[in-house]
Amino acid sequence: MKEKRSMVQELEEQYGDDGTLDMELTMQYLLHVSLHNMFSVEDVVEEDHIYLPAWEAVLRPEIAQMDERGIVLHFYLDVPKWGKSFFECCVGMGNTPKTSLGMAVGSFLFSFMQGLNQMESGEEMDMVTTEFAGKIHKFSVFGSNIVGMGNQPGADYDVYWNILKEEIVKRLGNQKICFVKIYGAKMGDDITGECRIDDIKSEELSQMVARSVSEWDIEGFASQKQFFFIRQAEETTLPNPYLGHEGEQLLKERVITAAKIFRDCQSEEDYDTMSARMAEALGDTTLAAECEMFLPEMCAENAFQESTYSETVDIQWQNGSGCKTVYKNQLADYYPIWNMLFSAFSEGVFGEDTNELYRKYIEYSSIGHALSQALEKESELSDIRLSALIFSATDDFILR
Fold this sequence. Notes:
This protein is α+β, with helices and mostly antiparallel strands. Helices cover about 40% and strands about 30% of the residues. It has helices at about 1-15, 25-35, 95-120, 160-170, 205-215, 245-265, 270, 275-280, 285-305, 335-345, 355-365, 365-375; strands at about 45, 50, 55-65, 70-80, 85-95, 125-130, 135-145, 145-150, 175-185, 190-195, 200, 220-230, 310, 310-315, 325, 385, 390-395. Strands 6, 7, 8, 9, 10, 11 and 12 form a seven-stranded antiparallel beta sheet that branches. Strands 1-2-3-4-5 form a five-stranded antiparallel beta sheet. Strands 15-14-17 form a three-stranded mixed beta sheet, with no helix packed on it. Helix 6 runs antiparallel to helix 8, helix 8 (about 275-280) crosses helix 9 (about 285-305) and helix 9 (about 285-305) crosses helix 11 (about 355-365). The chain is globular. The protein starts with a helix and ends in a 7-residue tail after the last strand.
C-alpha cells in the first residue's frame, strides 16, 4: 500500500497544481488519480485500463483531444456478462488543464457511472411492459443524475423521462440492456437537443429534447445531460447468440461471409440463388435475410449521411401474412451487423475488393437508387428525407 501511495504522490507532483498538456502524463494521472477508487465498487488499474471485478468490466479511457481550452475524453466500458459495450464522450472546459480534466471526469462519474450504480443497486425510477414480435418484455428503468454546465434551469429528476418515455418504449425490443443519453444546451437562440439510444442518434427524439430546451428561461450558456439504463427482466429476455465477445466474433464472421457471397455475385443466376446460399453458409436463416436486406442500405446511408432516413423499416412477409413496421433499434441484429460490416471494412478484411464491394452495395441499394433519382432533379442531399423502406421476407424470417 505504501508503494501505491508513493506512486500517486509522484504523479500528483509531476502533474502539478494546474496540470499539463503532456498526453502520456495526463493519461497516467487520469487512470491512477482521477478515476482510481472513484467507483462504487473496487477497481484495479491495469496498464491502459481499469478493471472492475464485481462487474467483470473493463473501462478504457482515451484522450480524444486536449489543449489549453479544454479536453475531450472517450470512455469505453465493456461488460461481457451484460452482453453490452458502452461508449460515452465527456468534455471539460476550464482555466487550466487540471480543471478541464476534473470537469470531464466529474461529468462521467456523476452521470454515466452514477446511473449504472443505480441499476446495479436496483433503485429503479420506473417499470414498463412492452410487446415485440408477439412476445411480452418487462423492463426496469434507472436514471442518472442530471448534470450540466453554466446557468442551468431547475429540473426534476424524471423530467426527460416523462417527456420521452412513450417514444423510448416504442423502440424497445428484446434488448438485455438499453442505454439512452440525453443532452441539451442553450445559448441565446442557439439550441441543441440530442437523444441517443445505444449511441445511435434518434432525430425524432432529439427534436423533442430541443423543444424542451428552447423553453429554458436562462441567461448565458447552459447544458444538461442525463442517462437512462433500461434492463429487461430475466424471465422475459429471449436468448441472443450474438452477445458477448464470442457472440460478437461469430456475428462478425457471418457478416463477412455474407458480404463475400454478395461480392462474388456476377450473373442473374448468382443473385437468384444468393438467399439460399447465404442461409446455408451462415447457418442462420434470419441473419442471412437481414444481411441481404440491410447491408446494401447501410452502405448507402453511410455514404450519403447528409440525407435523413426513417428510424423504422417495414417487413412484408411473402406468404401474405401481413406487413410489420419496426424500429431499427428494436431489431437485435440491425446495428450490430452495421458495426461488424464497417469494422471489417476498416480492418481491410476484403483487401483490394473493399472499395468495389462498398460501391457495389450502394448501387444495389434502394436508397442509392432513390437518391440518384432525386439528385437528377437537382435536389440537395440535405433536403432529402426518405420514408421507411419495405423489405420482402420469406415465411421463415423471424423478428428478433
